[in-house]
# Entry
Amino acid sequence: MSKTLKNIIYRLKRPYHFIKTGLLKGAVAAHRYDYPAKELTILGITGTDGKTTSSTMLYHVLKESGKRVALLSTVAAYIDDEEIDTGFHVTSPQPDELHSFLRRMVDNGIEYVVMEVTSHGLYQYR
# Structure
C-alpha cells in the first residue's frame, strides 16, 4: 500500500473515531457525571515506556507538596492515600468508567489528577 493511500485512510478514519469512540461516548458520560474534568487539573503522561513509573512519581511529588491529588494508572488508582480497585487494568478506560472515577475524585476534594494516557486513546478522543 502506498504512503499516499495510507495517509488518505488515516484521515478518513479519524472523524469516525472522533464520533464513535470519543465524542458521543465521552459527551454522554461527561454529562451523566456533571462534567467532572472541568473541576480538575488533569496531567496526562503518554509514551512508549515508563508511563506507570512517571505517573506514580509525579503523583508522589504533588502529594508531598501538599496538593490534593489522585492517580489513575494501569497498575493502581489512588485518591489521596486510598488505594482503589477500579478493575480497569487498561491504560485508557472507557469514557463512562473514567468520568465516574473523575466525579468521585471531585467529590473527595481532589485538585490534580495524574493519568497514564495512551497515544492510541488520544487519537480516538478517549
Q: What stands out?
A: The two ends are 28 Å apart (CA to CA). The CA atoms of residues 77 and 84 lie 5 Å apart.
